[in-house]
Amino acid sequence: MELTEDLATLATARGWAEAGHRVAIATVVSAWGSAPRRAGSHLAIRDDGLFAGSVSGGCVEGEVIFEAQALLAETTGVRSLEYGVADETAWRVGLACGGRITVLVQRLADDGFPVAIIDGLEAAARAGRSMTVVTDLGRGASWMGDADDIHFIRPWAPPRRLAIIGAVHIAQALVPLAQGLGISTTVIDPRTLFAADDRFAGLLLDRRWPDEALAAWAPNAASAVVALTHDPKLDDVGLAAALRSDAFYIAALGSRKNHALRRERLAAFGLDSEALDRVRGPAGLAIGAQGPAEIALSIAAELTAAWHGVLAPTAPA
Questions:
Q1: Was domain 161-307 assigned CATH 3.90.550.10?
Q2: In what order do the strands lie in the sheet with 249-252?
Q3: Which InterPro entries does the record match to this protein (predicted)?
Q4: What is the residue extent of each domain of the chain?
Q5: Once rounded to an integer, what is the mean pLDDT over residues 49-58?
Q6: Looking at residue 101, what is its pLDDT?
């Protein structure tokens, strides 16, 4: 599982604690103007000054690390730090971008930022579920729970993933679009002529058959699967595997006539009409797309609409 930047920072902090270090977690709890990092961004600081993550892109990290080490030298407590363009400290440490941030520094401990939160966030990410971390800014205590209007709320969306079946021209256009949306992408194709490394520079291709590849990839509720080969031997087994998962978006290329035939073939896998209705076909929003780049754009747009819950259901076949 590929971790988001902030979750990777928290996982690093947990590793330091397991190795015997005292660790602090600094979190941006408010950001205004041109502040370089959004609210919820994390910086992990070890007792010896080693750090991971960022709360300001380098502007105030040195000051925050100093305060975190002072906190770790104590047995209790929390630090709330404010930096803005008009603050003497902010100018001294380099925050001259016109923004303002408030950073909360907690110990990685049960009465601060518990390690159990990190474990829970990782489990939710693997399952494709959203989580919310709530922090009492006065006490400096965090927990996983429901949102309210009193405390600082940090929503954690699961990392989105996309599996593309078919290393075809449309896939070459869709991969960078998906990656630009922050979606981790894999391309599956057992055909060596298509799945050539030079055609997808920097992307690790999966050359197994789609059903085998998806079984290992394990689609979850934050996963999308798109079949692009036009070859039933490849598309159908992949779609059948996807339909047995919680994937939020499943689609395939092909005309409406071909999609009707696809439904008949997929029914032979023991899938009922409710399951078959989950397959978007033809894949992509109806934007009059022509050529691989525009078709890829239409698929990326439909995938995004599905993720945000604004995609109209498919008409019954």
A1: no
A2: 184-188, 161-165, 223-227, 249-252, 279-280
A3: MoCofactor_Util/Proc, XdhC_CoxI, XdhC_Rossmann_dom
A4: 5-156, 161-307
A5: 89
A6: 87
